[in-house]
TrEMBL record:
Entry's family note: Belongs to the class-I fumarase family.
InterPro entries attached to this UniProt entry: Fe-S_hydro-lyase_TtdB-typ_cat (IPR004647), Fe-S_hydroAse_TtdB_cat_sf (IPR036660)
Annotated Fe-S hydro-lyase tartrate dehydratase beta-type catalytic domain residues: 5-175
Organism per entry: Gemmiger formicilis
Keyword line: Lyase
A molecular function (GO) term: hydro-lyase activity
Stated name of the protein: Fumarate hydratase subunit beta
One Pfam family, short name: Fumerase_C
Gene3D superfamilies found in the cross-reference section: Fe-S hydro-lyase, tartrate dehydratase beta-type, catalytic domain (3.20.130.10)
Length: 188
């Protein structure tokens, strides 16, 4: 199935999604990689607010390249998500609804996704220019000293994504290979 979603996201928006579904996401998406996640944890440890509203938010694990003239952003391909796994359950408990990246996640992250009614979506790795085409605007909102890892507020339209982890415990990294092998046996 394909779904069209707009941020901020609610549990009701995410509940129908199943691992393997496709999503066209529009609205505000925040960028953050591991250096920014570490700083977010420092803020939370001090009782200070995060640089953006976390409830219903989508975070894209990306360090975009500089924009070319006339473009909102440079290439914006996903970063390996496992680098954020140590920080993710805490953010999910605070209301983070959606993570966008690539690669497998730890069991702790998977359990937290289900517990919090969140999702993990895949952006197309190696297709940073394609992903950048969905970005309408880009603004650094925190930690410009981090360069490409600064937190950015993106406005996206029809950002093409695939559901990797769903709210029900579905995991495309488990179900996908099994479905592929079953289809090969059926067609042989």
């Amino acid at each position: 199935m394909q779904y069209v979603l707009k941020t901020p996201l609610s549990k009701q928006d995410l509940a129908p999604l199943k691992a393997g579904d496709t999503v066209l996401l529009s609205g505000v998406v925040y960028t953050a990689r591991d250096a920014a996640h570490a700083r977010m944890m420092e803020l939370l440890d001090k009782g200070e607010p995060l640089p953006f509203p976390i409830e219903g938010a989508a975070i894209y694990y990306v360090g975009p390249t500089p924009e070319r003239p006339g473009c909102a952003i440079g290439a914006a391909g996903p970063t390996t998500s496992g680098r954020m796994d140590a920080y993710t359950p805490r953010l999910l408990d605070l209301g983070l609804a959606c993570m966008i990246g690539k690669g497998k996640r730890t069991d702790a992250v998977k359990q937290s996704v289900v517990k919090n009614g969140a999702v993990y979506l895949a952006a197309i790795g190696g297709a940073g220019a394609l992903m950048a085409g969905s970005v309408q605007s880009c603004e650094i909102i925190a930690w410009p000293d981090l360069g490409c890892e600064a937190v950015r507020k993106l406005v996206v339209k029809d950002f093409p994504l695939t559901v990797l982890l769903d709210t029900h415990g579905g995991d495309l990294y488990r179900s996908g290979p099994a479905a592929y092998l079953a289809s090969r046996e059926h067609n042989a």
